[in-house]
Amino acid sequence: QERLVESGGGLVQAGDSLRLSCEASGHSVSRKAMGWFRQAPGKEREFVASISWDGKRAYYADSVKGRFRISKDNAKNEISLQMNMTKPEDAAVYYCAEERMPYGLGSHARNFASWGQGTQVTVSS
Fold it and tell me: Which of 44, 74, 123, 124 has the CB geometry, 3.0–4.6 Å to 30, for a possible disulfide?
């Protein structure tokens, strides 16, 4: 089965760091741009960060710039989201997704699909 599996979520205090991981199972994402999205209760799913297929470019939502960093490890078939200086508004279910077409830059959120099941991040103040 071709799946994306997120992990690493949990409870942190505001200001703490957390690292999320997304493993692609049953298929390779080495040629795919990847992204992280999140959805808080009562809100729509929103873009957080993305990275080009080759890992040379990254894009971030304004709300997380300077705090989060996305990375891509093709050898492990994984992407990660390093979350630093977390804020209460970062609390959400975080989802991993891959871009529909290969060799993309990951610059358009609408092009992502194949969502994972998500991992819960809770930030207390």
Answer: 74
